[in-house]
Amino acid sequence: MAKFGLNFLKPTERFNGNWSVLQDKSREWEKMYRERWSHDKVVRTTHGVNCTGSCSWKVFVKNGVITWEDQQIDYASCGPDMPELEPRGC
């Protein structure tokens, strides 16, 4: 059975009282991470023809593709004696 160890770890320069480590790795992945929620436009819509409640959704679109959606919560109030109907969605 082979011995496993931490031989692949190498000491690095430390600073700030040994609380930080400098790395030379690429950080290109961070751009994708930051842009994952980016969008071109926001439209208001319902889910479909079978949605009997016609619940309102805020849909975020990027390059013509829906990237994510959020329930709208701006319906009119039912009054002080009734519970509110929001958020509502399929």
TrEMBL record:
Entry-linked PROSITE patterns: 4FE4S_MOW_BIS_MGD (PS51669), MOLYBDOPTERIN_PROK_1 (PS00551)
InterPro entries reported in the protein's UniProt record: Mopterin_OxRdtase_4Fe-4S_dom, MopterinOxRdtase_cofactor_BS, Nitr_red_alph_N, Nitr_red_alph_N_sf, Prok_molybdopt-oxidoreductase
Keywords: 4Fe-4S, Iron, Iron-sulfur, Metal-binding
Keyword Cell cycle: no
Required cofactor(s): Mo-bis(molybdopterin guanine dinucleotide)
Start and end residues of each 4Fe-4S Mo/W bis-MGD-type domain: 40-90
Domain of life: Bacteria
One Gene Ontology term, aspect cellular component: membrane
A Pfam family matched in the record: Nitr_red_alph_N
Coiled-coil zones: none
One of the record's GO molecular function terms: oxidoreductase activity
Protein name, per record: Nitrate reductase Z subunit alpha
Organism the protein comes from: Staphylococcus nepalensis
